[in-house]
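Trying the structure run again after the queue cleared.
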Amino acid sequence: MGRTHSWVGEMAAYSFGWCEVGGAPTTGSGGKGVRQALAVLGAEAVGASGGVAVPGAVAVELVHAFSLLHDDIMDGDTDRRRRPTVWKAYGTGPAVLAGDALFALAVETLAAAPAGPRAVRQLSVALQDLVRGQADDLLFATRPWTGPERVRPDEYRAMAEHKTGALLGCAAALGALLGGAPPATVCALDRAGRHLGVAFQVVDDLLGIWGDPAVTGKPVFGDLRERKKTFPVLAALDSPAAGRLRALLESDAGPGEVAALIEESGGRSAALAEARRQVTAAQAALADVPLEAETAEALRSLIDFLVRRDQ
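Done. Tokens:
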């Protein structure tokens, strides 16, 4: 972060939880480190040192932070990790600029690594998919709850793979690529990460409705208050109770009443089943290629851990 403008760097550091507005340091830390872990494990899984994956780990985390800054602006979210979002703390224009700086640093970091051109191409594909997924997510909000134009679960899966899975897959793939793995192995790790991304997003949807605020940092039923088209809602809208649920969603009904009907209609159980299906697909992708046994097991454990956050 020291390579960028000091004010922009302060905003980026704030987004990571390293400082307060004005630059006073904190002891906080932003995020779970999932993408960095996937990159390092991707390298170790193909028999390389985890250190060779550090440029990839840094790049995907910078891109993830960039996407969150812009995502908060697009969604109008005012809080992240229990404090004001960057645009709320510094202003919209400065937050966009900070996001742009993070993106530029990500490309610079990766381009300087061994196999830099191939690695940058891998990242570019993921970025295109991320943009595609974000565009679909924004457009979903304008579509009706029911009828021929409604958002269907398969469209949601594609959106989640692009918006969330592309960067998770890229992280694992970059680790393998920088570790000298053949293309088939790089593709398998990318595929596993994409399936993980869908599972991760579906679990986030469950937490957005039924999660414990003390754990998630979000209010209970938060996604329902905002009437977001999440997987449990879309699955319930495919049930015989679709008409009743649509009426509730289009009314000022309380989120507790809506959540109860979603659960009664099978939306919660369908989301759990979808997350499990995606985990199984991720594990199958890892089984398709030869990987270091101990590290492959660590990857499988990480995948299982990330999708058990609802329990």
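Residues 192 and 284 are 8 Å apart (CA to CA). Worth checking whether this holds up in the mutant runs.
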